[in-house]
Amino acid sequence: MIIDIGIIAAKAFLVLFMVLNLAGILGWIERKGSALIQDRVGANRASILGFAGLGLVNTLIADPLKFLTKEDFVPPQGDKFLHTLAPCMALFTALVTFAVIPFGDVLVLGERVINLQVASLNVGILYVFAMGSLGVYGIVIGAWASNNKFSLLGGVRGSAQMISYEVAMGLSVIGILMVFGTLELQEIARGQGALIRDLLPESASFLRSTVGWLPAWGVFLQPLAFLLFFVAAVAETKRIPFDLPEGESELVAGYHVEYSGGKFLMFFAGEFAEIVTVAALVTTLFFGGWQVPYLMRDGFHLPWGETVLLPQLAVTALQVGAFTLKVLFFCWLQILLRWSVPRFRYDQVMRLGWKMLLPLALLNVIVTAIVIVAVQ
Amino acid sequence: MDLSVILFFVLAGLLVMSSLMVVFLRNVVHCAMALVAALFLIAIFFLMLHAPMVGVLQVLVYAGAIMVLFLFVIMFLNPNTPEPRRKLWWGFGSLAALLFAGSLAALMTNGESADPMSVAEVFGSPEMLAKSLFTDFVLPFEIASVLLLVAIIGAVVLAKREP
């Protein structure tokens, strides 16, 4: 009993620790990356006793210190309580989403079976969407409580954008749910360990011999869904090219104009935690989660028949490592995207969401249904 | 005492408190946020009753979608002046509350106590919900979806300006 609670607490702590630290590191990577893309030297001002060599470590210490020692300003006409509540909600919803994302298969230690996932819910992906829909409040309430016209405009834009793209995001995932037949993210990750030739019937011999050796990752089975999901998820994080709620040139900083110090840090950390969550979701749904191609529970089973046996701890380490690498890759991709794509106009954002992504997602559902019926 | 019982009473206290705040707070946005908190707490109760599907749908539909629209309307209309208290509303409200309390009391004293563990393990799971929606209750389900579709079309027709 005590040990069980301890294991759950340890998993929760580990996940929160990793996400928050990764969010901090991403803040630094974003600045360094933007400097690299714009061909300048960036983020080299933080030095400890004249030593600026360890840029990452210095910035990681300097950033929060700077935020926390700044004045915490609340607009005099604003709503003090809601002004404080809003960043808490933004950070909370960004962090709790990670609870259902699996970062490894089950780990068997003696008689104890540890599922490498904080909470195993049979509604997994719906929980992710529920928490995402609560994230709207952080923006709307923060914008309203600031009593600032720019804030309010940003808040209205942000909530309309998030609600619109949630529809496309939810519909794009349905294809994946139909293929794997479950809402549980751990089961979806496990289902992607199969090879494509295991899913196809005997009669489809051409497909079996050409693409049958590929792992049955979501991106191979549902390429359109991956594209739609990724675009919608980036729109949910409200970053360029979808940063209309903040739009510096129009709204100063949108919903967080009136935030400073620690509360701004919470919005900031929430945004980077969302990047990590989106990366983890894309990994879990479309890139096999913790799966390493051809790695089964007892070792590698290569498609040409060779087998390399590995101890269980090594397999688990490989899985967790693969998950981390994939997540890091998608974090990097999102940061690259932010610094290489221009911003949309607001009507373009809405048109993309409702007139492009939504019909394509519906089409994907229909085509997937037809293919599944044909294969069975 | 069992840990879940303690948790239940703490959450129930919070729920009653936030529900009272919905009624008695003077600022409408505060009321709306208290309602969100109440809906969220009810969702946690569903989780504690091993019905994560209902709990998650509660958050997704009520707290995440409907209340956001409420908040939208409140923010756009921005009612700065608090509503004047009307005696008639108090009368209606008290009457409705009394009726509800009475029916609840009747239910609690009459009905045999339902054993929460007597239902099957998969009860309320997404698979079971989907199966019953698309086999036994497919006609009511389709009628409800057509009704919603009609409502959406009606809203679009009303909102669309004549060129």
- Largest sheet: spatial strand order of chain A: 3-4-5
Given the helix and strand composition of chain A, which structural class is it?
Answer: mainly alpha
Structural domains of chain B: how many:
2
**Main β-sheet description of chain A:** 3 strands, antiparallel
Roughly how many Å is the radius of gyration of chain B?
20 Å
CATH superfamily of the largest domain in chain B: NADH-ubiquinone/plastoquinone oxidoreductase chain 6, subunit NuoJ
- Percent of residues in β-strands of chain A: under 5%
Low-confidence segments of chain A: none
Cα distance spanning the termini of chain B: 68 Å
Unreliable stretches covering 5 or more consecutive residues of chain B: none
- Helicity level of chain A, as a percent range? 55-70%
At the first level of CATH, the class of the largest domain in chain B is Mainly Alpha
Proper CATH architecture of the largest domain in chain B: Up-down Bundle
Give the averaged pLDDT of chain A, no decimals. Answer: 83
Assembly type? heterodimer
Round the mean pLDDT of chain B to the nearest integer and report it.
Answer: 82
**Count of distinct strands of chain B:** 0
- Biggest interface, residues from each chain: A-B, 26 and 21 residues
Q: How many β-strands of chain A, per DSSP?
A: 5
Mind explaining what this structure looks like?
The complex is a heterodimer of chains A (376) and B (163). Chain A has 376 residues and is mostly helical. Chain A has one domain (2-375). Helices cover 65% and strands 4% of the residues of chain A. Chain A has helices spanning 2-37, 55-69, 80-96, 124-145, 149-180, 185-191, 196-199, 205-210, 218-221, 223-236, 248-251, 261-286, 312-340, 346-375; strands at residues 106-109, 112-115, 295-296, 299-301, 307-309. In chain A, the strands form two sheets. Chain A has a three-stranded antiparallel β-sheet with strand order 3-4-5, with no helix packed on it. In chain A, strands 1-2 form a two-stranded antiparallel sheet. Chain A is globular, with a radius of gyration of 22 Å. Chain A starts with a helix and ends with a helix. By secondary structure, chain B is an all-alpha fold. Chain B folds into two domains: 1-82, Up-down Bundle (Four Helix Bundle (Hemerythrin (Met), subunit A)); 120-163. Chain B is 76% helix and 0% strand. In chain B, helix 1 (3-24) runs antiparallel to helix 2. The longest helix of chain B is centred in the middle third of the chain and has 26 residues, at 52-77. Chain B starts with a helix and ends with a helix. The chains are: A mainly alpha (376), B mainly alpha (163). The A-B interface holds A 79, 81-82, 85, 121-123, 126-127, 129-134, 136-137, 140-141, 144, 152, 155-156, 159, 163, 183 and B 27, 29-30, 33, 36, 40, 52-53, 56-57, 59-60, 63-65, 68, 71-72, 75, 125-126.
